[in-house]
Amino acid sequence: MRSLLIDDCRRLNVNIIAQNYFDGIWELEHHGPWDKLYLDHDLSNDDESYCKEHRRYMTGYDIMCWLEEHPEHLPGEIVLVTDNPVGRDKMKQVINKLYPRDEVHGIR
Predict the structure, then answer these.
(1) Which among 4, 53, 99, 105 counts the fewest CB atoms within 10 Å?
(2) What are the respective helix, strand and coil percentages of the chain, to the nearest 5?
(3) In angstroms, what CA-CA distances link 93 with 24, 25, 26, 48, 104?
(4) Is residue 107 domain-resident?
(5) How many domains is the chain partitioned into structurally?
(6) In angstroms, rounded to a whole number, what is the distance separating the alpha carbons of residues 37 and 30?
(7) What is the pTM of this model?
(8) Each residue of 29-52: pLDDT tens digit?
(9) Domain CATH number, residue 23
């Protein structure tokens, strides 16, 4: 099983770890399809995570929005690993739109 973690702090036993939005999108786009995506909401606030176009730091929610626009890159399962309750709820809303209710999509 191929797994990807997009998180700036956690280290899980996965194939690839991306620490910011842009690296995460690159992995989803170029190294997929992924069986499982572990996703944090609050990604690093360093220069590599800042989006000049949006004038803010990009988050796991932004990754979910990108997946909504690019469903061909959807992983088989998404596991939310964020401690941010507001971010988790926003990300769950997108997951519920992307995966039919009768599929298991690994929201934790």
Answers:
(1) 53
(2) 35, 20, 45
(3) 20, 20, 23, 27, 15
(4) no
(5) 1
(6) 14
(7) 0.87
(8) 999 899 999 999 999 777 777 777
(9) 3.40.50
